[in-house]
Amino acid sequence: MIKLLVVDKHPIVRKGLELIFDVSQEIKFMGSVGDGESIFDFIQKTPVDVIIAEIDLPRLNGITALRRLKKEFPKTKVIIYSEQSESVYAVSALKAGARGFVSKTADILTLKEAIVRVIHGDVYLSNELTKQLALGTKSNKTSPFYKKLSTREVEVLKLLSSGKRNKEIAEELNINEKTVSTYRARLMKKLNVTNLIDLVNQAKQLELQDTI
Q1: Are 148 and 190 in contact (CB under 8 A)?
Q2: Which of 32, 100, 103, 152 has the highest local Cβ count within 10 Å?
Q3: Residue 206 near residue 145 (C-beta atoms within 8 A)
Q4: Are 115 and 27 in contact (CB under 8 A)?
Q5: Cα–Cα distance between 84 and 79 in angstroms, integer?
Q6: What pTM was computed for the model?
Q7: Using CA atoms, how far apart are residues 37 and 45, in angstroms rounded to an integer?
């Protein structure tokens, strides 16, 4: 059976997925945790095959956790299961080490399909995003958001948008504050804003545009 760990800050989401997978004959629910740091404590004691994780996590955000998992537990497959925009965050998640991205608006059969596919070596994305990426490759164009920002810049922008200060971001990403300031300056230049409030608003607008 496929051994599964669920990572989400909302207890009701974790419990709901537990009830669903407890009756599965193919997927075994091994447990759940509510923050990014706890992932590593759990799988050191209880190895799993697949992790379903939200991007927005306390203590250690999903993208940073992905980078670390890729280094420390390369055989463990990770699927991002998020309420965040797939168009905005899926590519960055894949670059960081995820094997799939499933929106929380998808049904449970889709989530199960994603788990089975990634365990067999496939990458799972929605049909809509797969088509967008294919068209972008053929025309040498990607969405304006990805064209402008690197994966690390998306990561820093996400943390800034969540209200974290430079010092907190530096600690979470294990970089110094000066580097965070550099990323922040690059973000402002690329997104054509002059202050943090406009930067955050621009980030939210980009997410909104990609959900319309």
Answers
A1: yes
A2: 100
A3: yes
A4: yes
A5: 13
A6: 0.70
A7: 14
List pLDDT tens digits, range 87-115. Answer: 777 888 888 899 999 999 999 999 999 99
- At a CB cut-off of 8 Å and minimum separation 6, what does 118 contact? 50, 77, 79, 99, 100, 124
Please tell me the distance from the alpha carbon of residue 99 to that of residue 68, in angstroms, as a whole number: 14
User: Residue 44, Cα to own-chain centre: how many angstroms?
Assistant: 21
* Planar angle of CA 55, 22, 13, nearest 5 degrees: 30
Residues facing residue 5 across a β-bridge: 31, 51
What fold, for 144-209?
Arc Repressor Mutant, subunit A (1.10.10)
**Do 77 and 118 form a contact (C-beta atoms < 8 A)?**
yes
* Domain range annotation of the chain: 2-134, 144-209
In a 13 Å sphere around the CA of 46, the CA atoms on its Cβ side amount to: 15
Q: Rounded to the nearest 5 degrees, what angle is found at the Cα of 116, between the Cα atoms of 114 and 117?
A: 65
The CA distance from 15 to 31, in Å, is 10
Please tell me the CATH superfamily of domain 2-134, with its number: Response regulator (3.40.50.2300)
